[in-house]
Amino acid sequence: MQIIPISIEIMRPPKDHLLAKIERAKPAIKSGDIIAITSKVVSIWQGRCMLKSAVADKDDLIRKEADHYLDRENVPGGHVIHTLKNNLLIPSAGIDESNAAGYYILWPKDPEKSARRILSFFRRRYGVKNCGVIITDSRSMPFRRGVVGVAIGWAGFDPLYDYRGKKDLFGRELRVSQTNVADALAAAAVFAMGEGAEQTPMVIIRDAPRIRFFSGEPRARRRVHGSFIVSMRDDLFAPFLRGVRWKRGGGAKRNGGSRTRKHKKIVNQ
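^ that's the sequence the OP posted. Answer follows.
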């Protein structure tokens, strides 16, 4: 598997032309490639930026963007507001101010739809049918210092590789093993992109194993525990996630309460 960082012109908040800058970078996209793009440049492309001087209280902005949140007083040192957004546990609802030129950069609007739009651009512009797109961000993990990459949106490929029903080295049938392809590739891509002034917000992942591409939308999985997204009530980490009193944020209200209904037993109204 190859990880090929791609440098593009600096994306400047509050709004800039991502696809035009990708074209000018002349990436050599091939069939079978997966293109990982950091969420920050997607957000700038969408104009999802707010001038810091125009925001009276960043914590209020975080609460408005979060689906659910846990206030700073519940976090050691009060360093972050923990949030749930788009079925991910992410600090500060993904709002970032690094490499942002005096702006707060919010998460992209509808990351999966954004990934599909970028995928359509690559298929049309480079004439490749089998390719995929991942929109990445970075986050911390429990009991570890430092950040790793995570996929917040994906398109064009199956984000899970299912080993169930296959045999291990000694002929034992695997019953539960599945590989999280999207986040595994995102972690490698974000490591190659860097977190500072590298100016490589895009990575081509080539010859990745166990990839199943789709020309349209992924087919619905019918097997038990086949969905990539897991509801909180079914999550292995539910004892920890449900053990705190999350508050409902503005994101849950904008989404019509769908996530709120899933989490209603743990939300402090």
